[in-house]
């Protein structure tokens, strides 16, 4: 495994502990280019030595801009038809990059073809995901050039498998696909990473039975040189940890309500909880359940869900500083 060494002057703030390593973790960007750029900038802003990007990198929605007479563009936004001039269309495209949506300008015939052919829609998503990720990776390599800062990442359950290939082929010197790997991030501190999650109502690409997740985590943990100093980067939070509380859905996928309020329940992974309780890493980093950001203690392990507000272009994250086998400090961030 590779040790990610750093230069002591690589963005480190004056007076910082020279024997400590600061990790900035964020997750669930879901296509928000604004959040990704903030994530890359966090290395310099916070003086972080390593950036760890949790899963669910890609967006879920394409907004077509359909050409209309007179140089206008038709778009449906939040269920409402909008007729835009060129300035309005450009503004909508910019807002989509903030909120994590993709856009594509097209003719009425092209739009009709997409409506009639679901496979063509999937092909369009793959094209836009690839195009966006390549642009992100180019930005990261450009902005982090000349430093020792690296990005470790692994796709989450919402990310199609082609994302792995894009990361491998275009990650360059700065971005490393860490799925299923153990990486030494500081002397005596290793990072174990997987984006696998338990089953959800949406049948996303990287969902597995709890038994499979348990086996994967045990196999990975067996390769740790020092479990007590390790950090787990696992997309799904541990079950019933307060980091996995989400609205409860009925069979119709609508949120259940009671007494006028939403019914919530833990939806995390029992296998992840059992692995944390058994191996007791120093800390564990999670996402997946956007509304359950926070921290919890599972034995000696500090478990963290960074949360997500990607739709507003807000980057939620956490700084974790480790050294000498300890978590020296941690701090939630919003920006």
Give a brief outline of the structure.
28% of the residues lie in helices and 29% in strands. The protein is α/β, with parallel strands linked by helices.
Please describe what this structure looks like:
With 335 residues, the chain is an alpha/beta fold. Helices cover 28% and strands 29% of the residues. The strands form 5 sheets. It has a 6-stranded mixed β-sheet with strand order 8-7-2-1-19-20. The radius of gyration is 21 Å and the shape is globular. It starts with 20 loop residues before the first strand and ends with a strand. Residues 1-11 have low confidence and may be disordered.
What is the topological layout?
Layout: E1 21-26, H1 33-46, E2 50-53, E3 62-68, E4 72-77, E5 80-84, H2 86-99, E6 102-106, H3 108-116, H4 118-143, E7 150-153, H5 162-170, E8 175-177, E9 182-186, E10 189-194, H6 210-221, E11 231-234, E12 245-247, E13 257-258, E14 261-262, E15 264-266, H7 270-279, E16 283-286, E17 294-298, E18 301-305, E19 316-323, E20 326-334
Parallel strand pairs: 1-2, 2-7, 3-6, 7-8, 10-11, 11-16, 16-18
Antiparallel strand pairs: 1-19, 3-4, 4-5, 9-10, 12-15, 13-14, 17-18, 19-20
> What is the string of SSEs from the N terminus onward?
EHEEEEHEHHEHEEEHEEEEEHEEEEE
Describe the strand arrangement of the main beta sheet, using strand numbers. 8-7-2-1-19-20
Largest sheet: 6 strands, mixed
Given as residue ranges, the uncertain stretches (5+ residues, pLDDT < 50) are 1-11
Percentage of β-strand residues: 25-35%
Distance between the ends? 33 Å
User: Structural class from helices and strands?
Assistant: alpha/beta
Number of helices: 7
Rounded average pLDDT: 93
Radius of gyration: 21 Å
The total beta strand count reads 20
Helix content: 25-40%
Shape assignment: globular
Oligomer: single chain
């Amino acid at each position: 495994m590779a040790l990610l060494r750093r230069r002591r002057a690589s963005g480190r703030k004056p007076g910082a502990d020279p024997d400590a390593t600061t990790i900035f973790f964020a997750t669930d960007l879901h296509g928000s280019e604004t959040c990704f750029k903030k994530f890359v900038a966090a290395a310099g802003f916070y003086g972080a030595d390593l950036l760890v990007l949790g899963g669910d990198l890609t967006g879920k929605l394409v907004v077509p801009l359909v050409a209309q007479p007179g140089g206008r563009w038709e778009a449906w936004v939040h269920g409402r038809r909008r007729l835009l001039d060129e300035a309005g269309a450009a503004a909508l495209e910019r807002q989509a990059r903030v909120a994590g949506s993709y856009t594509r300008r097209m003719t009425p015939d092209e739009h009709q073809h997409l409506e009639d052919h679901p496979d063509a829609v999937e092909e369009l998503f793959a094209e836009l995901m690839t195009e966006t990720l390549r642009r992100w990776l180019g930005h990261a390599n450009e902005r982090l050039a000349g430093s020792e800062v690296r990005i470790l990442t692994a796709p989450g359950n919402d990310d199609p498998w082609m994302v792995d290939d894009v990361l491998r082929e275009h990650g360059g010197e700065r971005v490393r696909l860490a799925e299923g790997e153990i990486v030494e991030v500081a002397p005596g501190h290793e990072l174990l990473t997987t984006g696998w999650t338990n089953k959800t109502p949406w049948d996303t690409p990287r969902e597995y039975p709890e038994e499979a997740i348990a086996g994967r985590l045990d196999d990975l943990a067996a390769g740790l040189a020092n479990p007590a100093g390790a950090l787990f980067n696992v997309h799904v939070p541990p079950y019933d940890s307060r980091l996995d509380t989400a609205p409860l859905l009925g069979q119709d996928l609508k949120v259940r309500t009671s007494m006028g309020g939403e019914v919530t329940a833990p939806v995390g992974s029992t296998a992840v909880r059992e692995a944390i309780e058994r191996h007791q890493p120093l800390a564990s980093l999670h996402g997946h359940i956007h509304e359950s950001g926070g921290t919890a203690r599972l034995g000696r392990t500090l478990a963290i869900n960074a949360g997500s507000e990607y739709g507003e272009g807000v980057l939620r994250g956490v700084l974790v500083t480790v050294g000498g086998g300890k978590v020296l400090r941690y701090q939630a961030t919003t920006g």
